[in-house]
Amino acid sequence: MAQSLLNEILEKMGALDENQRKAFDKEILDKSKDYIWVPNPGPQTDAFNCQADELYFGGEAGGGKSDLLCGLALVSHKNSLILRRIREDARALAERTAEIVGHNDGLNRTLLQWRMPDRTLDFGGCLNEEDKQSYKGKPHDLIGFDEAADFSETQFEFISIWCRSADVNQRCRIVCASNPPLTAEGLWLVKRWAAWLDKKHPNPAKTGEIRWYFRGEDDIEREVEGPGPYPKFNRMIRATSRTFIRSRLSDNPDLDQSDYGDKLTHLTSDLREVYAEGKFSVGLRDHPRQVIPTAWIDAAQKRWTEKPPLNYPMTAIGVDASGGGKDPMVVAPRYDTWYAPLIEVPGKNLPPEAMGKYSTGIIVANRKDNAVVILDMGGGYGGPTYEHLTDNAIEVIGFNGAETTLQRTKDRRLGFFNVRAAAHWKFREALDPDQEGGSPIALPSDQILLADLAAPTFDVPARGIRIEPKEDLIKRLGRSTDRGDAVIMSWWAGNSLLGGGRVSKRNRKPVVITKRSRGHRQRR
Predict the structure, then answer these.
(1) Which CATH code of 3.20.20.20, 3.30.420.240, 3.30.1490.20, 1.10.760.10 fits the domain covering 294-523?
(2) How far is residue 429 CA from its own chain's centroid?
(3) Helices then strands, each counted (H, E), the chain
(4) CATH number belonging to the domain at 37-265, selected among 3.30.450.20, 1.10.260.40, 3.40.50.300, 3.40.50.12580
(5) Cα dihedral angle (64, 139, 89, 458), rounded to 10 degrees?
(6) pTM beyond 0.85
């Protein structure tokens, strides 16, 4: 085994004179001649020998992350898939593997497939969200995501399904090799490995420490004590193990003695902290047309306290409705400028036959101080809930993002393409730290919420500011921004210290008016 050889080498290294060193080098070459690849001492060796089902090997640039994927495929696995978000970038990984092996016999550069006598290596890309389907049903015992922060969470989870082998003696594992994320789209990595990367995690893990995770029948993943098995759907299921190992340039002798470290040091401060120092707490880089700057959201989360300010009543509840199935219902209670932790109910827990009644019960259970309910009516999911709320004399505003609006920006210079654009921009204005007195908005510390609010982009056509269409946003992210939408809707109506929020009657009308609700309104 490569590890036994490495241990022998480490035991013999020390204070050797020149003649002893030459003899030692010859001994190393003789003993390692049958090994295609041996990991560097330190983190790369720890990662090579890691027993976790899911490993995140990341941190500083130049720490040997890509080489780890190539080495694992060459030494420990029979059927490997190594991915980059852009397929042409994966070609460089295939060429790097050829450098390690010393030849490219069997490498198909067109298909990016390498067929060796005793193993198979596939290299590929996943540029668009739907490209993940091309890996459906194709088993690999190693799936490596190089620069995993560039992938969406849904791409990672879907492709990972096919990490399997019919050989009971062949180990299967998933490895993410990546620097810290630079954009909000990559924050899923910090969420998935929160025990190692999130400084606010209640039970932080040490680098290399293995934790176990199990997704129950409610579709929520929780940390558990060990591998189990645990009951699910009348079966006993083993939990998934996960860990994080930090990569460092100083542990990679191939690059540490070069000028690569100097080049990283010359980067701008934000890039230097990510690539040269491997920091996961660095401010994310914004898209040039990002609606809400990430720094503003982060500042709002840092202002958050466990309880709302004294005598702050609940003024609004934003509700992102669900149609059941995979779509959750998200409730965002707001106490003036302080947001309570969001309430998320999995769609599978919402019975279709009693959707309105059940959803209304959730809203009422979390409503205080006669707060107005702002209910998402897009997609038609909110209709039954709207009826039940009005039947119970609860003030509710039907939010239809596609409607037109006469509202304008704070400086009155620009209008809005629709209500959705106005709602996003009004929340942006409320978060602006440069307004008089700064922004008092306090948002709960929630990585998903931060990613949701930072994701949308905008442009300015003739009709005014337009937000990136929801369907395009979902396609780009691989998911819906439900939490961010609920928070923005909660700001759209109801009183606030910033005076922001009573919308005109034009924008308060519900989208769906049934005979039943029409009759109810006439009776009132």
Answers:
(1) 3.30.420.240
(2) 26
(3) 19, 20
(4) 3.40.50.300
(5) -110
(6) no
Concatenating the DSSP letter of every residue in 341-390 gives PPEEE-GGGS-GGGHHHHHHHHHHHH--TTPEEEEE-GGGTTHHHHHHHH
d(Cα 521, Cα 524) in Å, to the nearest integer?
A: 5
For the chain, domain boundaries: 1-35, 37-265, 294-523
H runs (alpha helix) in 346-505: 355-366, 383-391, 419-431, 447-454, 470-477, 482-492
- Evaluate whether 368 touches 312 at the Cβ level (below 8 Å): no
pLDDT in tens, the chain (524 residues): 444 555 555 555 555 667 776 676 566 556 655 678 888 888 999 999 999 999 999 887 777 899 999 999 999 999 999 999 999 999 999 999 999 998 989 999 999 999 999 999 999 999 988 999 999 999 999 999 999 999 999 999 999 999 999 999 999 999 999 988 877 778 889 889 989 988 767 788 999 999 999 999 888 899 999 999 999 999 999 999 999 999 877 776 665 556 656 555 655 655 565 555 556 655 567 888 999 998 899 999 999 999 999 889 999 999 998 877 777 899 999 999 999 999 999 888 887 777 788 899 999 999 999 999 999 998 778 888 999 999 999 999 999 999 999 999 999 999 999 999 999 999 999 999 999 999 999 999 888 898 899 989 999 998 899 999 998 888 787 788 999 999 999 999 887 766 544 443 333 333 333 334 334 333 33
| Amino acid identity at 460 | V
